[in-house]
Every structure is written in C-alpha cells, then in structure tokens.
Amino acid sequence: MALDNETFVLMKDSVTRFVRERLVPAEDLVEETDDVPEEIIQEMRELGLFGLSIPEEYGGLGLSMTQECEIIHEICKAALAFRSVIGTTVGIGSQGLVMTGTEEQKQQYLPRLATGEIISSFCLTEPDAGSDAASLRTVAIKDGDFYVLNGTKRYITNALRAGMLTVMARTDPGKKGASGISAFLVDPSTPGITIAKADEKMGQRGTKTSDVIFEDARIPASALLGGQEGQGFYTAMKVLDRGRLHLSSVSTGISERILEEGLNYAAERKQFGTPIGEFQLVQALLADSQAELYAAKSMTLDAAAKYDREEEIPMLAACCKMFTTEAAGRIADRAVQIHGGAGYMSEYKVERFYRDVRLLRLYEGTTQIQQLVIARNMLKTVAN
Ligand SMILES: Cc1cc2nc3c(=O)[nH]c(=O)nc-3n(C[C@H](O)[C@H](O)[C@H](O)COP(=O)(O)OP(=O)(O)OC[C@H]3O[C@@H](n4cnc5c(N)ncnc54)[C@H](O)[C@@H]3O)c2cc1C
Asked: How do residues 235-245 score in pLDDT, each as one tens digit?
C-alpha cells in the first residue's frame, strides 16, 4: 500500500504549509487552553490526516510506512499535541483492526476512522501492568452473545475523544501471560464504561490521557477482534512494532524544530560583542544535535523501507525508538543550553519542548524495554 509519488509530494507540501501557517501559530493557544481547537481538528480531517494509514478501499490515504513517517515528521515540527489528536487513530488505535479485523469489523469502523468522524484509542496499560503488559488483569468473560468486561486501563491517550477503543482483556483468566489475552473493538458509550477525567501531566499540554474503567460492561461477541480469542496480545505487539517507527518520526520531527529554535537563537543572541553561534563550544552543541538528527532520520526511514518490503523489523523498530527518542532528549537539552537562562523561561518554546519530549522515552515501551527487545533479538541469532 502506498500513495503514488506525485500525489504524495502534493500532499506533503500541503501538510508542510498547514504546519507552518496553522499549527505553529496556534501552539500558544494549545498551551494556554490545554486543548486543540476544534477548527484545527476539522482542518486535519479535511487534509485526510486521520486516514493516513487506513487502506484506500476503506476511505483512507493508504500511505506506505515510509510515507507515513515523512508526514508525521512534518506534523511534529509543531507542538506534539496536534499529532496526538490523530496519532492513536493513525497508529496504535486502528492498526490492530487493519491487520487482523474481519471484513465486517473493518466496514463498521475504518471508513469513519479514516475521515476522523470517530477517533480510536488503544487500551493496553493498567495500574499494575505497564512494561509487563502480558500480566494485564482486565477480564472479558463470555456470556451468551456478549462478553462482560471488568477492569481498569490507565493513561489511555485520546480516550476522552474516542468513538472506538481497542481493548486488550483476558478471555481466559485460567491462562496466565500472553495467550489468554484477546482484543476487542469497543464503543466507549456502552453502559458500564467510564472515561475518567484527564490526567495532569508534565508536558504535552493539549494531549489527553485518562483511565478507562469497565464495570460489568456488556459488549457484543462480534466485537472480538478478528473473531479469534487468544490473539490480542500478539496483535498488540505487532501494532507496537509499527508504532515504534511512527514514534521515531515524531521524535525526528520535533527534534528538527527544536534544533531550528536553537540555531536561530545562536545566530541572534550576542555576548562578548558577537553572536553566540560564533563560539566554538556553542557550535559543538549545534553540530552534535545535527549529526544525531541526521542519524535518527536515516535509521527511521531505513527501517520504514524495510517494513514496506515486509522484512522483519521488531529489532530495528526498537533500535529506532530507543535512539530517536533518547536523541530528542539530548537535542532538547542542548537547545535549552544554547538559550542560556532564556531556555528556562516559558516565554521561549524550548522550555516547553524540553518537557514535551520527555514522554517519548516512556510510552509505547520505555528505553529499557527497547534495550531488552534489541538484545533478545540479537541473542536469538546465536542461540542453538
Ligand atoms: C502520556 C502517556 C500516554 C500513554 N498512552 C497510552 C495509551 O494510549 N495506551 C496504553 O495502553 N498505554 C499508554 N501509556 C502507558 C505507557 O505505555 C506506559 O506508561 C509504559 O509502557 C511504561 O509502563 P509503566 O508506566 O507501568 O512503567 P513500569 O513498567 O512500572 O516501569 C517503571 C520503570 O521500570 C523499568 N522496567 C520495567 N520493567 C523492566 C525490565 N524488565 N527491565 C528493566 N527495566 C524495567 C521501566 O523501564 C521504567 O523505567 C501512556 C503513558 C503516558 C505517560
């Protein structure tokens, strides 16, 4: 799946313009109101941004992974809250359905997800199951033509905005670990489902996470993703492999923006009668960030191209997620340093971006979990 090159180039140009003309000027409003204005969300719908990864036959743009990474990189040159509005629908919230849904399930949800009429969320994490997601405790017990859901999901991005939740729950409580887990496509307005108030966070104002609580929520048996029990965890892991490339582009996009802020400041700010960018120690901060950004972009596009050629990418996706998110942290830190005291002041955006990028190393698998994935995959190649 991919958009033809000519159409893609036109689309990318419109996104670049949209970011420059609409998103960047709205960043302060998002910060003040802790929300993304509805008119901007509507413009995102009109640009087709909710349907980037949804196949064309269901009304999406059907981009390849490489194309998706390029578009996400562009969008993330503005505050990350804008990407977050489309992020779960383009990525983790919908891709389980794209990969393993039945035709009926796809018809039911994908066209509405593609237009942004509804937003989807991915509900895996729980209060006691984070990195060890396979230990999740939410249950879905079969009762005739229904499953009855009980449990709590934590830090669920866009749950407050969602019209569809992809929920991982244990259909076989007797089975510990991954094989007892199934995935469900759930309507959040079902009685027995409560979406809690938005969490207060360190940064990324305008993004919304919350608990999702299931108390005897009865959902139709037809909501079982792919119609098969016991596949939910494996689907979630495939979705997260792909999601790691998406998040790597989030990291490269915002890193590029942050570096640009640092570069502009280095060119403008004068000390000792000369722009600080003339000082070689400041040049080192710029050069290290530029080299890391180049490496981060190159590896992400390389892994995305391999994904498009259907090569095995779990280890490479983990390498990308680890390197690009850690690099974003270092690039943001250097940008604050280049700004001196101004870098600590809210008036300058690097202070905000410094807090915003801290999240990238935590969700969809912490850096430590990426290290485990990388090393385990390496060891497999030498195991007898
Ligand atoms: C803003 C935000 C949005 C999120 N959105 C979603 C969402 O939409 N859907 C969803 O399902 N989840 C979401 N999450 C949850 C996120 O994916 C988890 O927070 C993350 O996977 C880490 O789990 P945890 O918070 O329970 O940390 P823990 O697993 O408790 O980890 C704590 C620390 O221990 C380390 N650690 C744990 N196990 C090991 C190990 N085996 N070896 C070495 N170190 C280890 C971790 O690296 C970390 O440093 C979101 C989180 C945040 C903060």
From this structure: 999 999 999 99
